[in-house]
Request: fold
Amino acid sequence: MTLSDLESSRTILAVSGLTKTFGALKAVDDISFDVAPGEILGIAGPNGSGKSTLFNAITRIPFSATAGVVLFEGQEVHHLLPHDIATAGIARTFQRESVFPSLSAIDNVLTAIEQTRRGGSFQRNVVLAEQALDVVGFPATLHNWRAAELPIFLRKLVMIGSAMALDPKILLLDEPASSLTPEEIERMRALIANLKAMNVTILLIEHVLPLLTSVSDRLMVMDQGRIIAMGAPDAVIRDPNVVEAYLGVAI
Reply:
């Protein structure tokens, strides 16, 4: 094994100099980081710090980066179409439940499969959709319920199930615990741990810090489009720069 092969085996995603500007505003400002296979990288930061914009720039949904390089398994993907990034193995969810309210839970997942996986029969796609919903713990008795009739926690499971139906190697979760009750947050924590046990690499944006620190192998904190801290979660949350970014005061 060469040195480059060894380095590649330790990194599944490498982001270098990623930048996204909107006029004079740098929403993401020269961000660089690596993610190891099977790792959960937690991403925290105040509102408006550029976290979701980072996900948008990596996946090119709904826009691409202004500059920078994204390597997935050693291959450049920042120039690919969003559909091709998803089929390559990078799936994501969104802050708001991006489900089709008039469709059933299983039809939501089927839609994701049919948009990205070409050539499969309808029967095979139904099996894949059922398996994806099972993976995230969605009740089988509710597969045919319209998404609009589901409580928020189950809508989030539909969204994560739709992403898992794409058989991703990397899953980008954007605030999956927002608006959940404490009991539901614990169920979300267990789900994320189960996905990690399935060898899914996860980038996790979350404002619920107890959840974020409990599941993350490393924690990255952003502020004003830049990384201000990176490392072990317990150490990062005590970093003076992080405290100041959240509370407005230095320690």
Notes: The chain has two domains: 3-89+168-247, 99-166. The two ends are 46 Å apart (CA to CA). Strands lie at 13-22, 25-35, 40-44, 67-72, 75-76, 90-92, 170-174, 201-205, 218-223, 226-231. The domain at 3-89+168-247 is CATH 3.40.50.300 (Rossmann fold).
